[in-house]
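Slide 14.
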Amino acid sequence: MNYNDTITLPNSLTFLRILLTPIFLFLFISDSSIDKQISLAVFIVAALTDWYDGWAARKFGNVSRFGMFMDPLADKILSSTALIAFAYLNLIDLWMVIIIIIRDITITLLRSIAELKNQTIITTYLAKAKTTIQYLVIYYILVLYVAKTLPYVRKDFPEFYAYLDYLLHPQVLFGMMLLVTILTVWTGVAYIYHNRKFIYGLFNYGK
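Slide 15: predicted structure.
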């Protein structure tokens, strides 16, 4: 691997996203309300690097094999860390998080390996919808949970503050995460089925 091909703007942004992930986790699970508020900004910046590194790679022709492998993996590391943080704070169930992480990391690795081998992984609109819904749920929980830590919200908007308790009610979050988990399992099975020849080839390579 050429060093100059690795240290590019898009790949640097991918590295930045990975570095920001533990910072987000530390701040979000902190007991300090200020830290939690900063964690939201850190997460947004990290998420923006996911969009910008892809744009920069296409714009400046900096698409690399390393970037094709690391960019989606860094994305899943960030989203998985957010889910782990939510479970740590007892906002969502851990068993759902485990299922989602195992599926996401596995499929991401398969897609990255396929790209490195110049092969195409078959995906579905439902899988894309699952990813969108999952991120919407993450932002929903993150933004509303952080909003509850803002002093002026409790002081100046007591009705809205009380409504936040309803929006973050365990049953509401359970329903959202259950939908994501069902879509996760469904699309994971579909991925394996539609790409079974490629997967079979990986496990039988060289035999």
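Speaker note: The chain has ten helices and no strands.
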